[in-house]
Amino acid sequence: MRGKKLGRLVGVVAAVALAVGATGPAAFAGGAHSGKTPPNVPGFNGSTIKLGVITPQSGIASVVGKPLTEGNRVYWEAKNAKGGVAGKYKVDLSIEDSQYQVETALQSYDKIKGDVVAFQQILGTQIVKSVNTRLKADNMFGGPASLEGVWVKQASLMPTGTPYQVLAANGLDWYLKQGGGQGKKVCAMAQDDAYGASGLDGLTQAAKTLKVKVTKTVRFATGSDTSAQVGELADANCDAVMLVSLPNDTGSIVTKMQGRNFSPQILGIAPSWLSGLENTDNGPFYQEHYIWLSYGAPWGDTSIPGMAQMLTDLQQYAPDQKPDTYFQFGYAQALAMDQILEQAAKNGDFSKAGIKKASNQVGTLTFEGLGGDYKYGKSASDRNPPRDSTIAKAAVGPPEGLQILVTNYTSQAGKNVKFNK
Amino acid sequence: MARPTGSMIRSYADDLRLFPTAAKRIGLVVLLAAYLLVPYLINDTWASVLSLAGVVAIGAIGLNLLTGYTGQPSLGTAAFIGLGAFVAGYYGGGRFADGIGYDFNLFVYLLIAIVAGGAVGVLIGLPALRLRGNYLVIVTLGLVFVALYVWKKWTTFTGGNEGSAMPVKADLNLGFWSIDFLKPTVFGKELGSKQGLMYLAWGFVIVTALLVKNIVRTRPGRALQAVRDRDVAAEVVGVSLFRYKVSAFAISSAIAALAGVLYGLYLGYLTPDETSLGLVLSIQFLAVIVVGGIGTIYGSVLGALFVGALPTLIREFVPDNWNLPILGWPIVTSDASATGFSKGALATIIYALLIIVFLVFEPRGLAGIWRRIQAYFRTWPFSY
Question: Which of A166, A170, A188, B21 is the right S-S partner for A217, CB 3.0 to 4.6 Å?
Fold first, then answer.
């Protein structure tokens, strides 16, 4: 009798545990499950899974690459401490310094591709595009560390986060409906490359949905003098400027704007901001005129499970890490890869083809509030990225120099955004 | 009676011989054997490094013809590299799946690139007739920016800011024999794309080196060098500045476009931005001929090998955490937050230092060092 009762109790406990496991993120929960034992393959030796990282660890772009990689590392250290993927396979990162140069990145790829099961992080738009041709040829899988819309339908890539196009569309919608922009002149200033084109694409699509006209669009080369472009926007009497730039150019552009007594509302796409800008000489201008268009959980909001877990892990494995949006992206990116590896473990297959197959079986990648859910579906053509944004304003004091105005902002304009193949 | 050595020049025919000594002929055989065997034997890491070095060597040989032999400094190489790469993308089937461009085989899109490069080179050569030195540098510098603008705006040809996929095959079909250099089968073994690209790139290194060597050792070459040394005097003695300057630009640009095709095949995808096709790329080619040796063909090859292999040598052989012996100062660290350089940063610093050292102490580059070594052993034991 006692044996039967005990058996029932164990059954109930197991059922509850399964139910919790089913509703919680398998990745965070440790994900122990009975699956086939995966055979050894390149990058997996029966106990350790190796993932590649190709990212700038030196040079100007290392301000992005280092915290991003730190986010990857902290996530996997915490996961390994819990046992690893499927509760038993540790994950090891093989980090290569790309120096933000395509040739170096390709040589790094060629060097480690035989030693890893997939690539956790590949940073740089041109680098991802070039590496992606090799990923396709080698039937491998990798995570691009940017929000380009062109990644969405690429079967060899693991995009995460709300794409730039959607951020721009939601940003315009918010400005017109809640930011006091109704009837105002909206303009755009974008760097003349793929990132800039993505932002402008989102703005153009949103303007069509919202039936507004973008008064003036100017482009600039990164690192160049932008006086002429700022002058054009000032002459066009723009009330708001959608800014698609990187932080070093943002500073220079804002200085030019102040020099011309031109003070539009700046709607800056996520990478245009870097923590610390609020304390520069241009700080008061940012605080009055800069709106940040990004996605995901506000740093420090422990009511969001994903953020609470990230801060706990950060405290243990990188206590000196300052609030950093790129760290958060890297952590969420590792969480995405974890879900795919858990699926691959369930299938008992960590081969290159096995990882890609697993990516088509995860269904939807969840981020516990760190970012919106990303539908992966049965193939890359089914993918549907999150459509939510976080909108903040520059401020002195809050983490990252950003005071959150609204989270999970969605709009019809953002939902209508289409992505190229 | 003792026979004269191969290095003794007794006639014009002797002077024209490409491989006058037995040592050089043996060297040629060794190099040809290396060409056939090395891609077959090495791993992907080194195949990747050496295939890129081959591409750079081709562009550097072309630039050396223009700058080293004709005295026309140029920073325009990146423009022609871009032209060749985008021709490959458009005519080689890179974007054909999206219904854009053509799907010709390697021979056709190489030919189109070479002709296009040569034609644009002629156009650039015309203003060079009235310019020299710094002024010519500025004109060719402008070409890089104009080209970048054109690549960004000519979206049907280049894909605009989104860029262009490059050909996924580099196939030749001669009826009796066919090969795809990106998936080659050699001695019955299927090799990787980097190994195939090595065969293709270093094959063209041999072809372009022979072509340029043939130009510079004959009458046109002497005319080019006369233009370089004293252009007015050259014209006085009957050398047509128009003909030789424009020809040098055309041939150099055609070779750069050829290198561009191979560069595109290496990258797999190309976007027209400053980091890929900007001034830095042109300066790198200039640095290759400075380090290798201005005015020498094998100097271009040595420079390309040196510049191409240095970062990989450091990555492979310098420890992840390396302190200066005795003093213990941190030189290389893998900890992003610690004092010291990453391996990538160290490679960049050494690369920059070596360029300075070569410019100051050995302006004739690696080729100059090699010549001194040759001279030492040729005159041994009477080397002074």
Answer: A188
Which token pair is A272? Answer: 């245009």
A12 to chain B, closest Cα gap in Å: 48
Which amino acid is located at A221 in the chain? Answer: A
C-beta separation of A167 from A415 below 8 A: no
Residue A156 pLDDT exceeds 90: yes
Q: Do A57 and B160 touch (CB under 8 A)?
A: no
Beta-sheet pairing, A240-244 with A186-191: parallel
Q: Which residue of B has its CA nearest to A126?
A: B271
Which of A68, A129, A165 should one mutate to test binding to chain B, selecting the residue with the greatest count of B CBs within 10 A?
A: A129
Q: Three-state SS for A406?
A: strand
CA distance B355 to B291: 6
- Cβ contact, residue pair B312, A107, below 8 Å: yes
Query: What is the per-residue pLDDT across A157-204, written as a single tens digit (0 to 9) for each?
Result: 999 999 999 999 999 999 999 999 999 999 999 998 888 999 999 999
Q: Is B275 in contact with A150 (Cβ distance < 8 A)?
A: no
Give residue A9's pLDDT band: very low, low, confident or very high (50, 70, 90).
very low
- Contact state of A129 with B269 under an 8 Å Cβ cutoff: yes
pLDDT on residue A10: 43
DSSP string of A144-192, one letter each residue: ESS--GGGTT-TTB---S--HHHHHHHHHHHHHHTSS-TT--EEEEEES
Q: pTM for the complete prediction? A: 0.82
Q: Residues 328..347 of B with a Cβ closer than 8 Å to A: which? A: 334, 336-337, 341-345, 347
Contact at CB, A125 and B271, closer than 8 angstroms: yes
Contact B162 A197 (CB under 8 A): yes
DSSP string, A44-74: B-SSEEEEEEEE-SSSTTHHHHHHHHHHHHH
Chain A hits for B344, CB-CB cut-off 8 Å, are 56-59, 97-99, 104
SS3 of A30, please? coil
Q: Which 3 state secondary structure label does DSSP give A76? A: helix
Query: pLDDT digits over B10-24, tens only?
Result: 787 777 777 778 888
Contacts with A1 (C-beta within 8 Å, 6 or more apart), sequence order: none
Render pLDDT for A341-362 as a digit per residue (tens, 0 to 9).
999 999 999 999 999 999 999 9
pLDDT digits (tens, 9 = 90+) for A36-74: 789 999 999 999 999 999 998 877 778 889 999 999 999
Q: pLDDT at residue A97 above 70? A: yes
Structure tokens at A148: 């380009």
Instruction: List residues in chain A touching B: CB distance below 8 A.
Output: 56-59, 62, 66, 69-70, 95-104, 106-107, 110-111, 113-114, 125-126, 129-130, 132-134, 137, 150, 192-194, 196-197, 221-223, 320, 420-421
Q: A119 in helix, strand or coil?
A: strand
Answer yes or no: is pLDDT of A35 > 90: no
Q: Decide if B275 touches A, using CB distance below 8 A.
A: yes
Would you call B344 and A107 a contact, using CB atoms and an 8 Å cutoff?
Answer: no
Quote the pLDDT of residue B257. Answer: 98
Q: Give the CB-side neighbour count of residue A302, counting CA atoms within 13 A.
A: 6
Contact B161, B269 (CB under 8 A): no
Q: What per-residue confidence (pLDDT) applies to A44?
A: 97
B95 near A CB under 8 A: no
